[in-house]
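// run 5 | inverse folding | seed 20
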């Protein structure tokens, strides 16, 4: 059998290859000895054994390898059709909407007075600002967000607007073209010495991206984690993975930094095409190359902004849940998840018991040891080891200034800030002739203590918040001169703000660290029967598309993977 090159570096492939070589060497040796005798039937028998081993042994060994590997992942079957969802983030709402549509009795308990979690907007004196989300991926023909909306009978074009962006590098503003090919051509124009490398690099990225989504029809409209591929599509899909997805396979276990060094010499080029690492919150050196291939979907298929602000998208999903008979209870903080004999029984919120055989937890998983008595020790340890992702600081400005000449998204690599002028995408977000401007900077979560409002007097908190907010205005003014003279309203979100409204650990904006060497996120099925995880705490991670995927996976699992399109 001929195995393509993509298998050749796999340690398990090499082991099996070694075993087969050993088997054939032994057969040849025995046959050589037998050739001096008259045992020709035995010779033929041994050769047949060798051929059969070559044909069947690899798949048998690989199958048993995966079976053993995936044994540790919980695989209980949920029962009943009543589901409690803890948290109305996009992960929870997605899961709830799909389940409600399919006849499940869904109850969402949300501690805040609004649904959406991080996918939220707020109004100040006629200006609408977004909590932070400014560009959403997964809205294309095979994109999970688009496929979800199709399934919920919503036209994604009615909801989202294509956004545009520009980068600032060495004080030069670079408009990023909307078409992927134009983006590549722009890079070639800027860095002509690297033309071949640019073409080869993006060829690899595009192929890997397509491979990642090519089986989506067989997997319920979402990419699946390995144990689920094994369960839902079958072992062959994993066995054939390197053959069918050689470009994805070549990126596994590689960092984005290594990939860049393999292809490019120019440091400015490397910086420029690393801009979107911000959507993972990792350093270039520790970003998994495959994660970046997924993030490059923004260049391939575009990024989108919800018309009217992010809150509209969350509200839409909540409305769908209600339209299908589900219930959303706001201001309901879940204080306990009830478990008996390792099976979930319901939750307690506002001192009241809500019973259900299935609970989907959309909060940050660091809460679980406090919410559940006697959680298995190894699971607690797994949770304890998780490191938060980056957090952020945002200054929100309502300006009596027309910024329509600027692109809606400006990512300034020199100053480490992002500028979002959402009113350029939807003019209803600001009064006539005015603009909204949000200035964001990503920060390590160590900074959380500096803003921990509970550990300082309010004056100190406000003065620290103001200082940071003004610092960001100063940096932004170097790109858009004069803004400080046109401020109608100014507000800010600190890491504490992010934590306060969503209970996300240390205000982490993407859940947990997604570096290549970070402890893995917990599986979507917990060791407690009936208790699921959705949202940024589980596969595949932070970001609207990612948490949508998590919500779809949990819903499909609850429904038994029976209604997936094949
Ligand atoms: C500043 C910022 C910028 C971002 N930019 C982008 C972007 O441009 N594009 C993108 O795709 N993503 C972006 N993200 C990330 C994205 O917003 C998040 O990954 C995603 O929204 C998280 O969804 P989630 O399902 O994990 O739930 P979360 O948003 O974390 O919400 C969880 C919900 O559960 C509730 N909850 C928690 N615990 C309890 C409890 N015990 N009882 C009841 N309710 C509870 C919370 O109140 C909250 O409503 C950004 C995030 C931030 C903060």
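// decoded
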């Amino acid at each position: 059998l001929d195995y393509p090159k993509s298998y050749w570096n796999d340690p398990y492939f090499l082991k099996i290859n070694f075993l087969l070589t050993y088997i054939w060497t032994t057969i040849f040796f025995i046959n050589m000895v037998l050739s001096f005798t008259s045992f020709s039937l035995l010779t033929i028998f041994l050769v047949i054994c060798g051929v059969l081993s070559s044909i069947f042994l690899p798949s048998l060994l690989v199958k048993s390898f995966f079976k053993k590997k995936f044994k540790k992942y919980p695989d209980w079957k949920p029962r009943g059709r009543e589901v409690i969802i803890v948290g109305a983030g996009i992960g929870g709402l997605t899961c709830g909407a799909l389940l409600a549509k399919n006849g499940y009795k869904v109850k969402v308990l949300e501690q805040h007075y609004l649904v959406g979690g991080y996918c939220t907007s707020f109004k100040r004196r006629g200006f609408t600002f977004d909590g932070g989300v400014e560009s959403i991926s997964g809205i294309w023909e095979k994109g999970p967000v688009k496929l979800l909306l199709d399934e919920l009978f919503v036209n994604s074009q009615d909801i989202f607007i294509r956004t545009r962006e520009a980068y600032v590098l060495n004080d030069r503003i670079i408009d990023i073209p909307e078409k992927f090919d134009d983006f590549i051509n722009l890079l070639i124009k800027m860095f002509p010495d690297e033309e071949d490398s640019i073409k080869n690099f993006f060829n690899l990225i595009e192929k890997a991206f397509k491979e990642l989504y090519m089986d989506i029809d067989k997997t319920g409209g979402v990419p699946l984690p390995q144990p689920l591929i094994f369960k839902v599509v079958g072992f062959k899909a994993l066995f054939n993975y390197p053959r069918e997805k050689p470009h994805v396979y070549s990126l596994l276990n590689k960092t984005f930094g290594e990939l860049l060094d393999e292809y490019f010499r120019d440091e400015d080029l490397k910086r420029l095409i690393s801009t979107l690492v911000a959507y993972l919150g990792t350093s270039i050196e520790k970003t998994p190359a495959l994660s970046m291939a997924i993030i490059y979907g923004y260049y391939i298929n575009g990024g989108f902004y919800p018309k009217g602000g992010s809150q509209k998208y969350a509200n839409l999903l909540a409305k769908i849940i209600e339209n299908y008979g589900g219930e959303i209870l706001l201001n309901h903080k879940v204080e306990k998840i009830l478990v008996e004999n390792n099976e979930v029984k319901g939750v307690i919120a506002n001192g009241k018991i809500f019973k259900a055989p299935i609970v989907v937890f959309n909060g940050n998983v660091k809460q679980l040891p406090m919410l559940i008595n006697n959680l298995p020790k190894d699971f607690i340890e797994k949770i304890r080891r998780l490191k938060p992702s980056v957090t952020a600081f945002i200054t929100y400005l309502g300006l009596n200034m027309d910024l329509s000449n600027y692109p809606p998204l400006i990512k300034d690599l020199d100053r480490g800030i992002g500028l979002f002028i959402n009113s350029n995408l939807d003019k209803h977000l600001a009064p006539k002739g005015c603009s909204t401007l949000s200035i964001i900077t990503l920060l390590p979560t160590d900074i959380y203590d500096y803003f921990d409002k509970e550990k300082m007097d309010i004056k100190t908190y406000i003065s620290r918040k103001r200082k940071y907010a003004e610092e960001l205005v100063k940096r932004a003014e170097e790109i858009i001169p004069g803004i400080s003279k046109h401020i109608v309203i100014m507000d800010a979100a600190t890491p504490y703000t992010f934590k306060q409204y969503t209970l996300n650990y240390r205000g982490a904006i993407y859940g947990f660290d997604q570096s290549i060497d970070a402890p893995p996120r917990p599986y979507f099925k917990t060791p407690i029967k009936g208790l699921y995880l959705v949202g940024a705490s589980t596969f595949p991670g932070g970001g609207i598309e990612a948490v949508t995927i998590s919500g779809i996976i949990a819903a499909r699992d609850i429904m038994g993977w029976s209604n997936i399109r094949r």
